[in-house]
Specification:
This protein is about 15% helix and about 35% strand. It is an alpha+beta fold. It has two domains: about 100 residues, Sandwich (Immunoglobulin-like), CATH 2.60.40.10; about 130 residues, Immunoglobulin-like, CATH 2.60.40. Keywords: Signal.
């Protein structure tokens, strides 16, 4: 059938309609979000929702790298889930708390918090945003280690002054004990550090350290004999018993034979070395 002008016009309109419809669909398809575009935001969301969790609790000496011969001073804990812009406080048994800080570590002084050997305590962490409580971790329980059995008292026979103790050059001193040490333990003993009248200082890990210091000793006996060359020095003296670690624990920096943390118990003296003449004035 021959095409009339009206039919041709209808065909043009139909083609134009399809073309316009195609153009109108293109922008809508281009506006659909890419499946890979929000990856960074997803990572941020996961970071924001990471659980707040106390991972480890333990005793620590916090003694400036001097080792664990001297026992522990604090109960410390580490936690994860820390978020930027938030602050944290650690709590023991629900009430006693640390200062507010923004990193995943906290510690409680053993003296200030009166921790008892063999007692179990509950530790948790709270998260804040501008002083508003946001999250609270689950509690982690920890039992304070029990130290080795030890003498109640130890004696060195020092000369006593006003608030000071002294050893006399030329005399020999031996430590004696009231009570018994536990069997099968080891000892760190001697003068672990000293200072001189002119500001000098030395400690046991230095090469050529001149004063007596022994580790992993099988007994607690200690004899000291200061001489005139030690006049004016001040000595820090320890006898510390501990249980030896049975094996290496690389994750905690412990090697077999190191003191088991929390097992240490010791006796300490801080003395100055004086002459017989000075001692006579104090003893007269």
């Amino acid at each position: 059938m021959p095409t009339t002008p009206l039919t041709r016009l209808a065909g043009v309109v139909t083609s134009l309609t399809l073309l316009l419809a195609g153009l109108s669909l293109a922008p809508a398809q281009a506006a659909e979000p890419s499946s890979s575009a929000p990856a960074a935001d997803s990572t941020a969301d996961r970071s924001r929702t990471k659980p707040l969790k106390v991972t480890t609790v333990g005793v620590s000496c916090e003694c400036g790298g001097a080792g664990y011969h001297w026992g522990w001073r604090v109960v410390s804990l580490q936690f994860k889930g820390v978020r930027k812009g938030h602050t944290y406080r650690a709590f023991v048994d629900g009430d006693r708390a640390t200062e507010t800080q923004s990193y995943g570590y906290a510690s409680f002084s053993g003296v200030d918090h009166d921790f008892q050997h063999g007692e179990t305590y509950s530790f948790r962490v709270k998260e804040y945003k501008r002083k508003r409580l946001v999250r609270t971790s689950k509690a982690k329980r920890y039992t304070i280690p029990t130290p080795v059995a030890h003498p109640e008292q130890a004696f060195l026979g020092v000369v006593e002054g006003e608030g000071e103790d002294f050893l006399v050059a030329g005399r020999t001193y031996s430590v004696s004990y009231e009570g018994q040490w536990q069997e099968g333990i080891q000892f760190a003993k001697g003068v672990d550090r000293f200072s001189t009248a002119d500001g000098g200082f030395g400690w046991y890990e230095e090469e050529g350290y001149p004063l007596p210091w022994t580790e992993h000793a099988p007994d607690a006996s200690l004899t000291l004999s200061p001489t005139e060359e030690h006049l004016g020095q001040s000595w820090n003296i320890y006898v510390v018993g501990s249980r030896p670690a049975p094996k290496d624990v690389p994750s905690q920096g412990i090697e077999a034979g190191d003191p088991v943390r929390g097992s240490e118990w010791g006796h300490r003296w801080y003395v100055s070395i004086i002459s017989e003449e000075q001692a006579a004035e104090l003893e007269g």
